[in-house]
Amino acid sequence: MSVTEISGAVRVAESDPRVSIQAAELDAHPERLNSPTGVVDLHRGTVTRHDASLLLTRITADGVQIDAPHPGLGCLPGRDLQR
């Protein structure tokens, strides 16, 4: 594509409500963590499929395994950790 064609495409995208979004809409879900294995809901402790409508722009380097043991949690004797 030429510079003129790219500039034209950008102008169209900027004015098209199907493509244009506000910066505040990006990453607007602080309770969600995007990972290669899915989106983690940090409040519920669940993983769901990726959802483009969430507009998550960042992703962790590694996937999540919710039921994997964590060696650091052994240092909390007597604590009932709930999801």
Descriptive key words:
three-stranded antiparallel beta sheet, about 15% helix, 1 helix, alpha+beta, about 80 residues
Task: Walk me through what this model shows.
The radius of gyration is 19 Å and the shape is elongated. It has one helix spanning 3-15, and strands spanning 32-35, 38-41, 46-48. The chain has 1 helix and 3 strands. The termini are far apart. The chain has a domain at 23-63. It has 83 residues and is an alpha+beta fold. Strands 1-2-3 form a 3-stranded antiparallel sheet, with no helix packed on it.
Compact overview of the structure:
By secondary structure, the chain is α+β, with helices and mostly antiparallel strands.
Which strand-content bin applies to the residues?
Answer: 5-15%
Average pLDDT, rounded to a whole number, is 85
**Biggest β-sheet: strands ordered side by side in the sheet:** 1-2-3
Q: Report the sheet with the most strands, covering strand number, pairing sense and barrel closure.
A: 3 strands, antiparallel
